[in-house]
Specification:
disordered C terminus; Cytochrome Bc1 Complex, Chain C; binds protoporphyrin IX containing FE
């Protein structure tokens, strides 16, 4: 005789252990499904209801999610690299050589970090394009668009600051050229260059500054902004719907 699966589920989901963890029954009714989302720390970032078209890959290209995934890869692999890297001109170059040759998973972690950084620049740009093409920047989502633009700039600055850290010829000259460009800003050029490098030319002070920006300040600001970005998606009523034209939105239209 086949066991009655529904009866078994009923017994499990009514048990005290199940209730102490999940606080709702098995998610086989609309009510329990909503409660499952709302009561779970992991799931509550999702809204209880979403518009169907926003789930289509052809609508979002999944680029926001992919960007977030790459950011997480960068955080995890970056923390690993921090265990084996010191931002001093005596050690930086040799530490990277050691990562490539003798440290367990060193080459894998470094390459994952580099590839995720390159891919994130591409994915965040494609995400920006998608939002633009679907009109996701329009009211009421203008604020989230601006947060997005800041995230885009931060992504580029994070890539740039990471570039100096191996302290090889490529890194040294890329940073020299980049900060020279900043140095020709009208009126405040010299000051900007001095703030970036901490000296008149790229050297130990610049390395420490770029390191601090790369591992602490920029990722910290980015984490907070990503949190606000996700929270705003919920507060703006979920993802955009190009077909919805309310009276309010047509007001003042030419
Ligand atoms: C670290 C960078 C970023 C992350 C992790 C991120 C993540 C996300 C995610 C997961 C979504 C949900 C929909 C989707 O996946 O497409 C989203 C939506 C959105 N993003 Fe981003 N995003 C980032 C950068 C940007 C940039 C650069 C812009 C624009 C300049 C932007 C503007 C928006 C807007 C306006 C929405 C709502 C779109 C709509 O309602 O259709 N985001 N973002």
């Amino acid at each position: 005789m086949m066991p009655d699966i529904n009866a078994i589920l009923k017994i499990i989901t009514r048990s005290q252990i199940w209730r102490s963890v999940f606080r709702q029954g098995y998610p086989n009714t609309d009510e329990n499904r909503s409660k499952t989302i709302v009561n779970s720390w992991f799931l509550h970032i999702h809204p209880v209801k979403v518009r169907k078209h926003t789930l289509k890959v052809s609508y979002t290209w999944g680029m926001g999610f992919i960007t977030f995934f790459l950011f997480m890869v960068l955080v995890v692999t970056g923390i690993y690299l921090m265990f084996f890297y010191a931002p001093s001109i005596e050690r930086a170059y040799t530490d990277i050589q050691a990562l490539e040759t003798s440290i367990t998973f060193g080459m894998l972690m470094r390459n994952m970090h580099r590839w995720a950084a390159h891919l994130m620049v591409i994915s965040v740009f494609l995400h920006l394009c998608r939002v633009f093409f679907t009109g996701g920047y329009k009211r009421p989502r203008e604020f989230n668009w601006v947060i997005g633009v800041i995230l885009w700039v931060l992504t580029l600055v994070l890539s740039y600051t990471g570039y100096l850290l191996p302290w090889d010829q490529l890194a040294y000259w890329a940073v020299t050229v980049g900060t020279n460009i900043a140095g020709v800003t009208p009126l405040i050029g010299d000051q900007v260059r001095l703030i970036l490098l901490g000296a008149m030319e790229a050297g130990p002070d610049a390395l420490v500054r770029f390191y601090a920006l790369h591992i602490a300040l920029l990722p910290g600001v980015m984490t907070v902004l990503i949190g606000i970005h996700f929270w705003r998606i919920r507060k703006d009523g979920g993802l955009s719907n190009p077909d919805e034209i309310t009276e309010d939105q047509t007001e003042g239209a030419a």
